[in-house]
Each structure stands twice: as structure tokens, then as C-alpha cells.
From TrEMBL:
<dbReference type="GO" id="GO:0006355">
    <property type="term" value="P:regulation of DNA-templated transcription"/>
</dbReference>
<keyword id="KW-0238">DNA-binding</keyword>
<dbReference type="Pfam" id="PF13412">
    <property type="entry name" value="HTH_24"/>
</dbReference>
<dbReference type="GO" id="GO:0043565">
    <property type="term" value="F:sequence-specific DNA binding"/>
</dbReference>
<dbReference type="InterPro" id="IPR011008">
    <property type="entry name" value="Dimeric_a/b-barrel"/>
</dbReference>
<feature type="domain" description="HTH asnC-type">
    <location>
        <begin position="4"/>
        <end position="65"/>
    </location>
</feature>
<dbReference type="InterPro" id="IPR011991">
    <property type="entry name" value="ArsR-like_HTH"/>
</dbReference>
<dbReference type="InterPro" id="IPR000485">
    <property type="entry name" value="AsnC-type_HTH_dom"/>
</dbReference>
<dbReference type="InterPro" id="IPR019888">
    <property type="entry name" value="Tscrpt_reg_AsnC-like"/>
</dbReference>
<dbReference type="InterPro" id="IPR036390">
    <property type="entry name" value="WH_DNA-bd_sf"/>
</dbReference>
<dbReference type="InterPro" id="IPR036388">
    <property type="entry name" value="WH-like_DNA-bd_sf"/>
</dbReference>
<keyword id="KW-0805">Transcription regulation</keyword>
<dbReference type="InterPro" id="IPR019887">
    <property type="entry name" value="Tscrpt_reg_AsnC/Lrp_C"/>
</dbReference>
<dbReference type="Pfam" id="PF01037">
    <property type="entry name" value="AsnC_trans_reg"/>
</dbReference>
<dbReference type="GO" id="GO:0043200">
    <property type="term" value="P:response to amino acid"/>
</dbReference>
<dbReference type="GO" id="GO:0005829">
    <property type="term" value="C:cytosol"/>
</dbReference>
<protein>
    <submittedName>
        <fullName>Lrp/AsnC family transcriptional regulator</fullName>
    </submittedName>
</protein>
Length: 154
């Protein structure tokens, strides 16, 4: 775990709200000099605290109206089978998130697709045709009441 001081925490809080800020704007918001701010951000990236800086898109504006939350149970749970499943999920662009969980199913996968036909085709390709998948249980979002990426920094 990385030790964070108050300046690091302020930087992370501001970047979680708007990662598009210039270094100058960020420095002003966190009350630090631009060189200090740049050094801190670079260190936080290097240490992996800042894993990625991205734009969060609105799926409904892109014609991706179906969010599926899918529970997957594997037939064989040995480490190599779990890793193989995770690798398969990592290559699929419609898979937004993949979690290995316990107890219950082996994985929970979040999928974003255009419609039910697209989900059916994807589910057949990813799940039904795989010999190591024992059970698939899908839930479809009818309303997203909260979606946040911001984390509380203690």
C-alpha cells in the first residue's frame, strides 16, 4: 500500500472529478506549485495509485442500451481455469468489468451491448459454447440510479 500525505489525497480527489485538468489548473486547485504537482502526479502514476485516466462515456448516447450483470459458475475452479476465463473476458470489448467473487458464483461480469439480440449472440459465443461453464445467470438493468468511479481516500 502506498502512503499518501494530504497533498497526494487532494490531488487524487480533484483528478477523480476531472482528470482533464492541465497541471497548472490542478496545482491551483490543490494549492501547490506546478512542479510539485507534476512530480506528485508522476509518482502516483509510477506507483500505480493512478491506474488509468479515461473519458467515461454515456452508453445510451452510443446505442448501447443493455447492461447485463452476469453470474458465471465454472465447472472446474482450478486456478488455470479461472485465469483462462479471465483472459477470455479481457479480450471481449463488450465486457466492461469482470470480478472473481466468493462465495456464490465464481465470477460476476458486467456487459454493455446494443440490444437483446447482441446480448444473446455474445452470451452464446462467450458462455454457451465454453465447456467449462456450468451455470450462467443474467440480470438486466432497467434503470441505473448510480454509477460512480470516485473512491473515498482515507
Amino acid at each position: 500500500m502506498t502512503t499518501l500525505d494530504e497533498l497526494d489525497k487532494r490531488i487524487l480527489q480533484v483528478l477523480q472529478l476531472d482528470a482533464s485538468l492541465s497541471n497548472q489548473e490542478l496545482a491551483e486547485r490543490v494549492h501547490a506549485s506546478p512542479p510539485t504537482c507534476l512530480r506528485r502526479v508522476n509518482r502516483l502514476r509510477k506507483e500505480g495509485v493512478i491506474a488509468k485516466q479515461v473519458a467515461i462515456l454515456a452508453p445510451e448516447k452510443l446505442g448501447l442500451g443493455i447492461t447485463a450483470i452476469v453470474e458465471i459458475t465454472l465447472d472446474h475452479q482450478a486456478s488455470e481455469h479461472q485465469i483462462a476465463f479471465e483472459n477470455m473476458m479481457a479480450t471481449e470489448s463488450a465486457v466492461q468489468q469482470c470480478y472473481r467473487v466468493s462465495p456464490g458464483p465464481d465470477f460476476v461480469v458486467i456487459i454493455q451491448v446494443a440490444d437483446m439480440a447482441a446480448y444473446h449472440a455474445l452470451a452464446h459465443r462467450l458462455f454457451a459454447s465454453q465447456s467449462n461453464i456450468r451455470n450462467v445467470r443474467s440480470f438486466f438493468s432497467i434503470n441505473r440510479s448510480k454509477f460512480e468511479t470516485q473512491m473515498t481516500i482515507a
